[in-house]
Amino acid sequence: MTERRYEKKERYGSRERYYVDGNTVRKTYTQAVPDIRPVSPRKRAPEAKPSVQPREKVNVGYIFTLSIAAVAIVVLSILFLSMQAENNANKKAIAAMQTQITDLATDNDIREIEIYSNIDYDKLYNKALSLGMGSAKPSQIITYDRGTLEYVKQYADIPTEK
């Protein structure tokens, strides 16, 4: 049976060898083999001298402007939050008023139905006739051509004779 040999290069120059023997792979250890490479002398970067830079003066105008801007942002944020809370309260009040209007309109419709259902139209007609009222006679009815409009506007007195 032929043996297959494999090499695996590891860090720091040690080598491990493997070979196949039947259905097993065996590992053989060898001594560390030095990595032979030409070593070039390292070029050193010139050491940077810590430069002592003079400290910049604090610009009072810049600090003052920055602090005013920060205060303005805080004040505007507080105003925005208070206006938003007021807006939410107004929305809730409007919703409550709309509910109240709906309830009042329903009550009004119910009372109107009660009022009109209690009217006795026959009794009213007989009372009007007893007081001298009556239906209009054909000679008292004046008709007008309304044209294309759905209504007629009266700009002058109605003529007495036809």
What descriptors fit this protein?
single chain; alpha+beta; 3-stranded antiparallel sheet
Give the arrangement of secondary structure elements.
Blueprint: E1 4-9, E2 15-21, E3 24-29, H1 60-117, H2 121-130
Antiparallel strand pairs: 1-2, 2-3
Architecture overview:
- With 162 residues, the protein is an alpha+beta fold.
- The chain is built from two helices and three strands, in the order βββαα.
- A three-stranded antiparallel β-sheet has the order 1-2-3, with no helix packed on it.
- The longest helix has 58 residues, at 60-117.
- The termini are far apart.
- 0% of the residues are buried.
Runs in which pLDDT lies below 50 for 5 or more consecutive residues are 9-13
Shape: elongated
Mean pLDDT: 81
Strands of the widest sheet, in order across it, are 1-2-3
Radius of gyration: 54 Å
The major sheet is characterized as: 3 strands, antiparallel
Brief description of this entry?
With 162 residues, the protein is an alpha+beta fold. Among the domains are: 1-33, no CATH class; 60-132.
